[in-house]
Amino acid sequence: MTTVLVVDDQPLQRYGFHLLLDSVPETDVVGEAAHGAEAVRKTAELRPDVVLMDVRMPGMDGIEATRRIVAAGGRSRVLVLTTFDLDEYVHAALRAGASGFLLKDARPEELLAGIRAVASGDAVIAPALTRRLLQEYARYVPAHRADSAEDPGLGSLTDREREILVAVGKGWTNGEIAARFVLSESTVKTHVGRVLAKIGARDRIQAVIFAYDHGLARPNAD
Amino acid sequence: MTTVLVVDDQPLQRYGFHLLLDSVPETDVVGEAAHGAEAVRKTAELRPDVVLMDVRMPGMDGIEATRRIVAAGGRSRVLVLTTFDLDEYVHAALRAGASGFLLKDARPEELLAGIRAVASGDAVIAPALTRRLLQEYARYVPAHRADSAEDPGLGSLTDREREILVAVGKGWTNGEIAARFVLSESTVKTHVGRVLAKIGARDRIQAVIFAYDHGLARPNAD
DNA sequence: CGGCGCGTAGTACCTCGGTACTACGCGCCT
DNA sequence: AGGCGCGTAGTACCGAGGTACTACGCGCCG
């Protein structure tokens, strides 16, 4: 049995979800909320398996509510629903920690399948959104490992040189690298110089770019 | 009516898909292939709406076949199926241009829904994989737009300054930027200096990192 | 043993980048 | 009319970065 909290500012919409979810035995609507603040409060109180969250709501919106629910650390998972497939919503929701994102025009069985998946710890994305998400994903997440044959130098770097490159990718100066690796600055310069030659970069800036493009540098830097 | 090409090296597996897809009126299996090379050939010949592609196959595997089919530019979409949810497969398949990735233990209706979605130009990912994909996505694709309140400067940049930052993110020197923007190097320096001050970077290297972290710089650089 | 790759270290030199500060024209708002 | 933001441009200065070249100890391999 999956317990669900329905969050939507439209009473009629809530009623519809209620009807749908009660029509099958596996889901049980344990509560409703009309805005973000109420959603956060009731989630803490009722501890539902799944929070069915509308995005557009007066006051605290669904994104912010999602963020707080996820931050609270309970076991409730958030499935975001919206009429609009605006990219910003999707991004914001996923970054807020939502486990899923579906459109309200989804067929009932899709919604139920989504709730089921989210409840079991998986994630769902509406097919119509998945395409765009994947395009972006493929753009942003490049050569995960040294896959695509062409590999101008990465493989020829020694372990030490790769370490140095990562450090350069963090934006550290030669002096900082020397300090953290307990080396002389001269040595760092020698390493950096060799790295630049091997990867075909003319300066450390292009080395940073190289590092990002090849997955050596990460946004969670420093 | 959706036409499907079934690709799998196991005859029994192909038979199973054939049975399933023929049991519903909306799909029509127009051909089968036992390995990658045959899949590429038959896709070109039969022009199916959807290619149901197994990953593990002797000879050319499903990933390479997917890459070639997508590169060929036809309207056939590839839905990759596998028994193993290995990350490398998922990554490779998506980068190869697959429109979907499902596990073979999917329930029949899920598979059919997937085929339907892919045929209509959408994309599908098995829920079990979506979670991991999203985690990574959230890691790699940072603040897409100035969403999360904290925004040390990006919003305060003028249009010109943002242009400059993008150029810096491409690894261009001040001289190159001056040349491409038809400016004096002094002006570029002034702009760069202001950008650094606004985003809180101490040098252009950290500006490059900032640009990447905020989605201003792209792997498809230069 | 001798050579080679690698990591370490140094010197010398010059360029590029960044800072500080000034300055001016343009457009917009008050 | 005056002020302000923005884009433009300049000078002067200095430190970090990069190049070129040399050097040495260590471990591995033929």
TrEMBL record, chains A, B:
Top-level taxonomic group: Bacteria
InterPro entries documented for this protein: CheY-like_superfamily (IPR011006), NreC/VraR/RcsB-like_REC (IPR058245), Sig_transdc_resp-reg_C-effctor (IPR016032), Sig_transdc_resp-reg_receiver (IPR001789), Tscrpt_reg_LuxR_C (IPR000792), WalR-like (IPR039420)
Gene Ontology MF terms in the entry: DNA binding
All residue ranges annotated as the Response regulatory domain in the record: 3-119
Domain HTH luxR-type stretches: 150-215
Keywords of the record: DNA-binding, Phosphoprotein, Transcription, Transcription regulation
Modified residues (4-aspartylphosphate): 54
Gene Ontology BP annotations: phosphorelay signal transduction system; regulation of DNA-templated transcription
Name of the featured protein: DNA-binding response regulator
Species in which this protein is naturally found: Streptomyces humidus
Taxonomy of the source species: Bacteria, Bacillati, Actinomycetota, Actinomycetes, Kitasatosporales
